[in-house]
Design a protein that fits this description.
Elements: H1 3-8, E1 12-14, E2 19-21, E3 38-45, E4 48-54, H2 61-73, E5 79-84
Parallel strand pairs: 4-5
Antiparallel strand pairs: 1-2, 3-4
């Protein structure tokens, strides 16, 4: 699973700032450390999957739904996405 690739697709280059960040407004107010955002673990559970993403606060529903939505579209069922700092 290339989940980190999915997270990297959120970045857009910005010549003025000299860094990369997302311009998608759905993530604008979520406490996310874009510089170090990454999937740290994917666990197979008895009733589905648990995906852990580091460098995003636990209250990032848009980011969690973004990942969950793509994984469901790719055929994963019962996916729980946990974000943690």
């Amino acid at each position: 699973m290339r989940l980190n690739w999915l997270l990297e697709r959120l970045y857009e280059p910005n010549a003025e700032l000299g860094s990369r960040f997302t311009q998608d407004p759905q993530f604008a107010k979520e406490p996310i450390n874009w510089g170090d955002l990454r999937c740290s673990e994917v666990q197979r559970l008895d009733d589905g999957w648990l995906v852990t993403i580091e460098e995003a606060a636990p209250d990032c529903p848009a980011l969690q739904e973004y990942v969950r939505g793509w994984l469901r579209a790719w055929g994963w069922e019962k996916v729980t996405v946990r974000t943690e700092r």
